[in-house]
Amino acid sequence: MIGSFVCDEECSDVFTLQDMISTKMAEALASRLSGEERKLLAKRYTASPEAYQYYLKGRYFWGQRTENGLKKGIDYFRQAIDQDPNYALAFAGLADCYALLNAYSGAQLKEAFPRAEAAAEQALALDDNLAEAHTTRAYVEYYYKWNWAEAEREFQRALALNPNYATAHHWYAEYLMYMGRYEESAAKFDRAQKLDPLSPIVTVQQGLPYYYSRQYDRAEEEFRQAQKLEPRFTPLVYMLAMCYEEEGKFEDAIALFQAAMAGYQPSPRMTASLARIYATSGRRSEARRLLKEALAHADGRRLAPYYNEYLEISCSAPAGE
Description:
Shape: globular
Strand content: under 5%
Helix content: over 70%
Low-confidence stretches: 1-12, 19-35, 37-42, 317-321
Distance between the termini: 67 Å
CATH topology of the largest domain: Serine Threonine Protein Phosphatase 5, Tetratricopeptide repeat
Largest sheet: none
Number of helices: 18
């Protein structure tokens, strides 16, 4: 059994250990693995232990889904590439960090996504069968270029190359959700979560297909389950607060933001999001105060015009507070 495997032989380095585990896994799963899956299990993407360690650190920080984490991820992936300029996986990791910079740091789309695309193309130039890079290319096609058909082709290519790559299922699930294909999206999110059950972002986003299909009770149930894993995980705060807002549970949404913001300087986006909740609930003077605070702390970073426009509409009535 895989679970009972113990490395009692002398492991000279991380790759020796990796090979031994892969061999044991392949032996245990031999009857269920295809030939391509056996190749993936045994494949090494770099001969440099240092590059591999930098890559693992890059993925760890990428998984945090914060501005600081993404910037650290970029630094580690670049160090991996410095150690091994032919390390295709490191280029794919770099592409993934750039692909998320707009969402988590306020970077301009036109700055972040061309860098993501360039890094993904470099990864594919080194290894055209790399599912990770095809997944990032698909993400760029739908999120930045709005090229829906090409995005779906790339997602399907990635999954054909590696059916067990959780991020391919995860980002394809997002794509399907935005296409209004909610049942397919929920199934893909479920598959991603089974493949990577400890990923906070995958666990949190289980509720999104239900939120966007206006099944708010079910969405809240999914988000609250995710809350048990990462109660202060920033994407969870936004998603659960959005759900509360749609349900008219404004005080719950406000309390959620306040708990997440306690003890540190919140991002301008989080402050502006709380301002939006105040405006929606009719607390206009607090909404105006928080929006001014968000703008004051933006420090040149992008804050979506949506917040100003939304609050202008919501606060257009004479303030009586």
